[in-house]
Specification:
α17 runs antiparallel to α18. Helix content is 39%, strand content 16%. β7 and β8 form a beta hairpin.
């Protein structure tokens, strides 16, 4: 080119020619831009990012080797499924005859029988039919530069979703609660989203929730490394609100009374001193004595209010300080401060900017705050100057959510001018406000690629919110999409795994499931999770119900009837026990034994608990007579409680065992449907690469439009009407549980 130097022309000639004619070329461009930009944000994790002028290149690997790319919208912090999972692979050659046959010289020949069996199984599945063109679903794309690929795209979210405990206040015309996608206060505290990066050999076929909630676990792609880079959001307003609640807890009178009780000796001395001051007052008559006592009390109250006011304020301030210190402690030492955002997600402070780096967070005194403390960020100090500065150091850009006077405290010019020539100015600080959201950079662990709900209709019923969220996970909007995705992963693993043996391909057994999650299942059930409360009550009612009387109407045996003397004795024993000192102790011990075995409030049932009390009471009464002493009653109570506790423990153990067996059987059946193999329970060495990039919505739409057969998120319009709500069932009055 005549207008450039020779060297510049040389570099231009040898530079890579970017393809913008196909979706693969666009995907290379967007991911390359994202991962080069990420290096600037996260220089400490260079292995995950592109360096300098590097470009992404999708390698022409063996057929059916999946290349997984997640595309996230820039500045995305919503609960919507508007990110994208892209699956690229080189299709294998197939023989088409009476049935589909895998045949390609690049496929691992020793693995083909197992892979072929899996393909045949999926093709024969009538209940959950495979995707169109299985086992080679997707859209064919090709160009001279990017070669030939088969591509699938799935709407997903790469963000945590809503906090399940957060209140949803938005409702439809029928009064049904709906998620408010713009209410960012519903996002969970501190839960991070995985940062863009290239995560090679990081995911394997395994279980989602297998350790934490094994009854709900299912096949998914599971992260193998302990941790990967992640961004976390800390809504400062939530912590300030909690600090304010801690500051305002209790009345001044109650706090003062508690302090006075601790200062009993000082109070006596104070009362004596006041009485001495008022000794001139007459106390001869009853009225005069009452007036004297009233005057002493009023003076005592006035002095106590004045004396204890600073201590009360100190206690309240310390309570608020503890909440803000907890916020400070939650931000790990390896987390870096990236930026401040407004609740809308708009950036208000860039801490990566030159001269704007944060050195620490601190909880400081603040007389202008209603809670007398604040949380603020301390900027890194400027280097020492050779001459005194003539003006105050430049303040960081003021947060758009904070008043400049309260947000930035900088060194005064007079202090700077009088400082030593080699002394740096005091560090600048930024007080955080309720409208600030602090974004940090740290690490996350245990992230998976999984579904949002179990069935397709469930996703619509839940109004498209992320119901199955966890830190850093890539969650599929559609259960059917996720099933198709996992089938491709399962097939790729079966074809390419280099350590595959005959044991890997055998049918999964109940013993395999027990070995994989049995210990976790027992621990989970013993913790009495809410979903098993009905089963526990059924087991208790069966175990503690009195035996059914034998029907002797058809036999010649006479019916046993209680004699008047026996009834009279029974009434006397019951009265004796009711009036004994051990009766209240008995009630407390029954409750203590029950709550120890079943600590969850959800397990309490009034009728069941009465049945348990009756059982224990009968054990006590059967050991008494109308001549029993208080000591006899105490011994009977101890023996009865011991037998009751033994019976309760045996019933709990039997219930755990029965639930365990049932859950293992259910999981075995589900895992067979999922296609899991014995080696998927933590031992398989075959791993998948994953790449996560960020780009604009416009770029994502441009990328998907090149496919031609599926618009981005077109299957899930956000304005789809929710299903009509079912009429609410009348709530049965719930009895108050006995105190633990």
């Amino acid at each position: 080119m005549p207008t450039t130097t020779e060297n510049e022309a040389h570099r231009a000639t040898l530079g890579e020619t970017k393809c913008s004619d196909c979706m693969i070329g666009l995907l290379k461009q967007y991911t390359s831009e994202s991962l080069r930009a990420q290096k600037k944000l996260d220089p400490s994790n260079q292995k995950y990012h592109l360096q300098d002028n590097e470009e992404i290149e999708f390698l022409r690997a063996k057929p059916l080797t999946l290349q997984l790319v997640g595309l996230r919208r820039e500045r995305s912090i919503s609960n919507k499924f508007d990110d994208l999972m892209v699956v690229l692979y080189d299709p294998a050659l197939l023989k088409e005859g009476e049935k589909t046959v895998l045949e390609d010289p690049d496929l691992r020949q020793e693995n083909l029988p197992s892979a072929q069996g899996y393909v045949d199984k999926i093709l024969a599945d009538k209940k959950r039919p495979p995707q169109k063109d299985w086992p080679l679903p997707g859209t064919d794309v090709s160009c001279l530069q990017c070669m030939h690929w088969r591509v699938l795209t799935f709407p997903i979210t790469t963000e945590p979703g809503y906090d399940p405990k957060a209140p949803h206040t938005k409702k439809d015309a029928q009064g049904k609660q709906l998620p408010n996608f713009d209410d960012l206060s519903l996002l969970p505290d501190e839960v991070g989203a995985v940062a863009p990066g290239i995560y090679n050999n990081s995911y394997r076929v395994g279980l989602h929730l297998g350790t934490r909630k094994p009854p709900n676990s299912f096949a998914a792609l599971q992260l193998v490394p302990d941790s990967i880079p992640a961004r976390r959001r800390y809504p400062i307003g939530r912590f300030l609100k909690r600090a304010e609640s801690a500051f305002n807890k209790g009345t001044d009178d109650d706090i003062r009374k508690a302090l006075i009780r601790k200062d009993a000796k000082a109070q006596k001395e104070l009362i004596a001193s006041i009485q001495e001051e008022f000794k001139e007052m007459k106390r001869g008559t009853k009225a005069e004595k009452a007036a004297f006592d009233k005057a002493v009390k009023e003076e005592l109250d006035a002095r106590n209010r004045e004396t204890y006011a600073p201590r009360i304020l100190e206690l309240r301030t310390n309570a608020a300080r503890a909440v803000l210190n907890a916020l400070k402690a939650r931000i790990g030492k390896n987390e870096r401060y990236i930026r401040l955002e407004a609740p809308s997600g708009a950036e208000t402070q860039d801490f990566a900017k030159e001269g704007n780096q944060i050195s620490s967070m601190e909880v400081a005194d603040d007389d202008t705050s209603p809670i007398r403390v604040c949380v603020r960020l301390v900027f890194e100090s400027s280097p020492p100057t050779s001459s005194p500065p003539t003006a105050a150091p430049a303040a960081p850009p003021a947060s758009i959510t904070a008043k400049p006077s309260a947000a930035v405290a900088s060194a005064s010019p007079s202090a700077a001018v009088g400082a030593s020539a080699t002394t740096p100015p005091p560090p600048r600080t930024l007080t955080l406000t309720k409208d600030d959201v602090l974004v940090t950079f740290g690490t996350a662990a245990g992230t998976n690629m999984h579904r949002s709900v179990s069935e397709e209709e469930g996703a619509w019923r839940k109004n498209r919110e992320v119901n199955n969220w966890s830190e850093g996970c890539q969650v599929f909007r559609s259960p059917n999409d996720f099933r198709h995705f996992m089938r491709m992963a399962m097939l790729s693993k079966r074809v390419h795994c280099p350590s595959r043996t005959d044991k890997c391909g055998r049918t999964l057994t109940v013993e395999d499931v027990e070995k994989g999650i049995g210990e976790n299942m027992t621990t989970y059930i013993n913790g009495c999770p809410n979903e098993f409360a009905k089963l526990a009550n059924s087991a208790l009612q069966t175990g503690f119900s009195p035996p059914t009387p034998v029907d002797t109407s058809a036999s010649n045996e006479p019916k046993a009837t209680a004699t008047p003397d026996a009834k009279k004795l029974r009434d006397a024993v019951e009265k004796l026990f009711a009036e004994s000192k051990a009766n209240q102790e008995f009630t407390n011990q029954v409750g203590k034994a029950y709550w120890k075995q079943f600590p969850s409030e959800e397990y309490y049932n009034k009728n069941t608990y009465s049945l348990l009390q009756d059982y224990a009471r009968e054990k006590v009464l059967s050991a008494l007579s109308d001549k029993s002493t208080e000591e006899d009653i105490k011994k009977a109570v101890d023996a009865g409680i011991e037998e009751f506790t033994k019976k309760l423990t045996e019933t709990k153990d039997g219930w755990v065992k029965s639930v365990y067996v049932k859950q293992i059987e259910l999981k075995h059946a589900q895992y067979l449907e999922d296609g899991l193999e014995p080696c998927d329970f933590g031992t398989c060495g075959f791993k998948f690469d994953y790449m996560l990039a960020e780009t604009t919505r416009t770029n994502m739409e441009a990328f998907v439009s090149r496919l031609g057969d599926r618009d981005w998120n077109s299957l899930y319009p956000q304005d789809a009407p929710p299903p009509a709500p079912k009429p609410p069932k009348p709530a049965a009055p719930r009895a108050k549980a006995p105190a633990k």
